[in-house]
Amino acid sequence: MEQEKQLGTQLRIRREELGLTIDHVVQETKISSRYIQAIEAGDFGLIPGEVYLKGFIKTYSKLLNLNPSEMVSQIPSQDSSSQNANDSVEQSLYPRDKSSNQGFNVNSSMPKRSDKHSINGRSDRGPSIRKSVQIIAIVIICLLLITYVYQNIILKNLPLPEPDDQNDDPIDPGDDDTPEPEVPQVTIVEDSSGFASVNVDAEQIDLRIEANQTCWLRAQIDDNEPESQTMAPGDVLELTAVSKIQLRAGNSGGIDIYLFEELLPVSGQSGGVKNYTIQTQP
Predict the structure, then answer these.
(1) pLDDT score for 205
(2) Which residue has the higher pLDDT, 195 or 268?
(3) CA-to-CA distance for 32 and 25, rounded, in angstroms?
(4) How confident is the model at residue 12 (pLDDT cuts 50, 70, 90)?
């Protein structure tokens, strides 16, 4: 029971560190909140069977970015009394003579299969292997010979290209009339511990999110349905919207937000939840 409570406490602490609620875990894993609470409380007896218990803990561990195999290995093993009972029944049905130390040998009653690939006790695979090695050696020698002829005979006898005198004028870098792209104007309307509002003077919004710590993120682009995911360190998420992007980040201090390839100077708090609204100017 103590080992079950330790495993449940470890999962609960990890969930709280990511700023996730039980309702969010239920939404992402489709596991009943009653079972989630039972797992975190170490009350594994409420789970309907060991197969379901292992499946729930493996799914829950993946959401929390924990090693599923390591978490499942911490589940206490069930009572082995049923296995011992089965062993007793098997011994009564199939007794063995301990004095002679002889048991039932399946292989002793099976006829031996003759080796179809041997003649007079010797395998005939040797010649075929040697033939394959000889073919490979011939192919390698041919390739080396072709490479030598190409590099030392053909390439050395090729005529040198004549210089092109038609375009001797150097390119003047000042003749490039391509206009430089204008940098959209970004205005930070508000930046508090739990909310940030940013206006952009542009026709669309190009956003890139880079994670340097584990962070849970929910993003809504324009009027589309919001989508959630857990970002691991090194993950990159790119978003494009016409008018608005709304973000909700757990452990908001673990991400960097880039707007039009420029780092957005909005604060984030490690372990804290923060909402972001980035929209084009009305």
Answers:
(1) 94
(2) 195
(3) 9
(4) very high
Instruction: Give the end-to-end CA distance of the chain in Å, rounded to a whole number.
Output: 59
Please name which of 209, 222, 225, 231 lies closest in space to residue 277, comparing C-alpha atoms. Answer: 222
Tell which wins on pLDDT, 181 or 83: 181
Kindly report the pTM of this predicted structure.
Answer: 0.38
Using CA atoms, how far apart are residues 262 and 140, in angstroms rounded to an integer? 54
Classify residue 138 as exposed, middle or buried by CB count within 10 Å of its CB (0-12, 13-18, 19+).
exposed
Handedness of CA 168, 173, 175, 178 (dihedral sign): positive
Whole-angstrom distance, CA of residue 216 vs CA of residue 19: 8
d(CA 138, CA 199): 70
Tokens 């970002």 label which residue? 231
- Secondary structure letter of residue 204 according to DSSP: S
Is the Cβ–Cβ distance between 265 and 278 less than 8 Å? no
Q: How far apart are CA 271 and CA 127, in angstroms?
A: 69
- Residues 78 and 50 sit within 8 Å (Cβ to Cβ): yes
Question: How many C-beta atoms lie closer than 10 Å to residue 264's C-beta?
Answer: 19
pLDDT for res 165: 52
DSSP bridge pairs for 198? 188, 278
Burial 60-76 (b: 16+ CB within 10 A, else e): bbebbebebeebeeeee
Percent of the chain with pLDDT over 70: 73
- Give the residue among 278, 253, 124, 122 at the shortest CA–CA distance from 198: 278
Bridge partner list, 230: 216
Distance CA 11, CA 240 (A): 34
On the CB side of 165, CA atoms within 13 Å amount to: 1
